[in-house]
Amino acid sequence: MGNPLTAIPMRAATWSARHPWRAILGWVALVAVAVGLAVSIPTVQTTDADYRLGESGRADEMVEAGGLEDPETENVLVTGRSGVPDRAEAEEAAEQVAAAAADADGVARVGDPVWNQDRSALLVQVELADEDADGLSEVTRQAQADHPGLEVRQAGSVTVDAGIDEQVEQDLRAAEGISLPVTLVLMLLAFGALVAAGLPVLLAATSVAATIGVMAPLSHLVHAEGTVSSMIVLIGMAVGVDYSLFYLKREREERAAGRSTRDAVEIAAQTSGHSILVSGGAVIAAMAGLFVVDDATFDSLAVGSILVVAVAVLGSITVLPALLVKLGRWVDRPRVPGLWRLNRRIGRGGISSRVLGPVVRHPRVALVLSAVVVALLAAPAFAMRTHSATLETLPASIEEVQTLRAVEEHFPGDAGAAAEVVVRARSGADRDAVDAALADVARQASATGEFVVGDDPVRTSDDGLTSVLTLGMPFEESDERVDDAIRTLRQDVVPATLGGVDAVAEHAVGGGPAANLDFADNQDGRLLLVVGFVLLLTMLIMVVTFRSVVLAVVSGALNLASVGVAFGVLTLVFQEGWGSDLLDFTSPGFVIDWLPLFVLVVLVGLSMDYHVFVLSRVREHVARGLPTRLAVEKGIADTAGVVTSAAAVMVSVFAIFATLSMLEMKTMGVGLSAAILLDATLIRLVLLPALLVLLGERSWWPARPQASRGEVVAEPEPAYALTSR
User: Fold this and answer.
1) Statement to judge: residues 355 and 324 lie in one domain
2) Rounded to whole angstroms, what are the CA distances from 349 to 283, 346, 395, 642, 672?
3) Number of H helices, E strands in the chain
4) How far is it, in rounded angstroms, from Cα 235 to Cα 606?
5) Are residues 666 and 575 in the same domain?
């Protein structure tokens, strides 16, 4: 009996080929039901509580229990249009804002207008009763209209979040509007016919739609993070098109060799369908590594990516064979004359054969040279610095972001990071002892020179049990000294001062910088676990699939090389600022902390797509009796056209995200597109064949592949272009 992994897509394709309308209507029903779920079931978004980690998480819980959460605050900034504003007019505008805001809907408290040190700006701070800033925004607009010689602007957590949401929505609409036509053009270049080009795009788009629909009910179990829809589009378009491409290319080859449509579909299921199943398993295994981090963002991204890959695999081995059977030869209609002739002339491996020939003839030289290039590209990764997203990482195109930056520029005393020492006293505790200990914390923290204590630094809950001491820091949030200050506070100051009240109260150091530090420590502690989990699981899949320990080790090494290149590119571009003008962003001097881990698992998963496809064809030739050297040359030449098309789709989709304004999207796009481009060319077209040729028959240890009963192996002389039957 053949490989059970081959039997699954074979049986699914055979059933779909024999009952095409059932398979097609079943897929349509699945997509329709999924979209209906998204309409009828509200999606549960992640909340602040989902992100609590470590000591800062405990501090946040105590603050919430005591009802001491910081109120939503908006800032109304009054400045001159050019230079210092007229003092009387600026004060009149600020008083107008303060008076009108006091009566506006959704406003809880209005602070007095405050001049900055050089009298170049006035600031009015407004506390909101809830997350509705519309009333205050109307007040700000009216003040601006009444004082055209001034700039009256508003920004705060509510309006900045709204601006970010609007920008993300615009970015996604732009990405979706560009990605579909670009992918369709690439498919036209790959197939030279409209129907054949449209099928992969159709499958990918419906897979994405179905996944987004199913995510709505799933979000009640795993809350949906804000960027999960972007990730589903990103991954879904890439794998959906690739899987269809693998299947369709093989089916066309078999028809070109004279087989009937149904036979060609079943052979494609046994070969390419098998590769799709293994590739999908590898992507899912890689994405499952995100669960190891135990973080709300990564959990949501893992669920979305695993689901969209599973849906794309399902469509590739069910509805795609059904469509191919129903379309028959019409899948190659209507032909685009110029592209069709070009496609036939180029055939498979036209460009790659020019590269592959020298690699096979001189494998040692090719291995050394390519390894040197990979090492040089990966070297900057050792200097990578990560940090959580800050105001610096937000696009300046968001008006509220510009305003908030102006507030920080004019009022630098309010712009630094801040830590919170939270104390929750037990019932009946000595409040005087707790208050004295907090005062001691404030004195000793100030004495370190790393903290600044305000005039009224402690706030206490209504029940008198919870107290929060706010300690400012004279550093920007992204400054490395912030983390050192938090560690000093936790390890030295707080134990020395609050240790005496441990019996009557619990305490924790929290605040935004502390939460960022806890996230970074959590990620650093689990990074090696994730890398080990992903590599070991994908290597295990390779052992089970190809029965070769050597191939599994080679695959793991190549994956590490790809990841190193990706990290090196991220460091050069986003930390050092290479090409920042071209990509239209300002380097914050670091890489946003969650992105390297995400890029790692996505890259390992997606690169395994064509890696499995290439090795499967090489294995077919070896099973037919060819020596490994010749099998490598023929197998890679046979699949080069498909791999090139698949990589082109991935690179183009990711490159679109590199043009978006949000730095997180831009980072994902640049890192993945650059890494996939190098992975599909330098690593898989040079390093892989060089290693396999040097290893020779040892590549298949412990046993050389043999064709199983009923297993299809590569034809001795495969057709290189579809005839005009």
Assistant:
1) no
2) 26, 8, 43, 9, 24
3) 25, 11
4) 9
5) yes
Peptide bond into 702 cis (omega under 30): yes
- C-alpha distances out from residue 598 to 169, 512, 534, Å: 21, 22, 12
| Domain count within the chain | 3
What is the 8-class DSSP label of residue 110? E
Question: Which residues form the domain of 281?
Answer: 1-40+198-246+258-329
* Polymer length in residues for the chain: 725
pLDDT at 555: 92
For residue 489, being part of any structural domain is answered with no
| 6 inside domain | yes
pLDDT at 57: 92
The pairing of beta strand 466-472 with beta strand 418-425 = antiparallel
Q: Are residues 554 and 698 in the same domain?
A: yes
Burial of 463 (0-12, 13-18, 19+ CB in 10 A): exposed
> Domain check: are 555 and 642 in the same one?
yes
Predicted local distance difference test score (pLDDT) of residue 707 = 58
Q: What is the 3-state secondary structure (H, E, C) of 578-643?
A: CCHHHHCCCCCCCEECCHHHHHHHHHHHHHHHHHHHHHHHHHHHHHCCCCHHHHHHHHHHHHHHHH
467: in domain: no
- Note whether 13 and 109 are same-domain residues: no
* 185-224: pLDDT as tens digits: 888 887 878 888 888 889 999 999 999 999 999 999 999 8
Residues 6+ apart with CB under 8 A from 382: none
Number of neighbouring beta carbons within 10 Å of residue 532:
12
H or E element at residue 505: strand 505-510
Give the three-class secondary structure for 355.
Answer: helix
For residues 27 and 124, membership in a common domain is answered with no
624 and 656 share one domain: yes
User: What does the pLDDT read at residue 345?
Assistant: 54
The pLDDT score that the predictor gives to residue 716 is 42
Q: What is the pLDDT of residue 148?
A: 92
Which 8-state DSSP code applies to residue 682? I
How many C-beta neighbours within 10 Å does residue 84 have?
Answer: 12
Q: What is the enclosing helix (H) or strand (E) of 561?
A: helix 549-570
Contact call for residues 533 and 289 (beta carbons, < 8 A): yes
CATH of the domain at 113: 3.30.70.1440
Yes or no: say if 633 and 353 are a contact pair by the CB < 8 Å rule: no
CA–CA gap between residue 654 and residue 376 (Å, rounded): 23
Side-chain-side CA neighbours of residue 665 (13 Å): 30
CATH classification at residue 625? 1.20.1640.10
Residue 66 maps to a domain: no
Identify the sign of the CA torsion 679, 646, 689, 279: positive
Distance in angstroms (rounded) separating the CA atoms of residues 433 and 439: 10
Residues 569 and 646 in one domain: yes
Give CA angle at 716 (711, 718), nearest 5°: 95
Enumerate residue ranges in the chain where pLDDT < 70.
1-6, 9, 338-354, 413-416, 428-429, 503, 707-725
**CA distances to 335, 397, 524, 688 from 160, in Å:** 50, 12, 30, 48
- Are 566 and 603 contacting, i.e. CB atoms less than 8 angstroms apart? yes
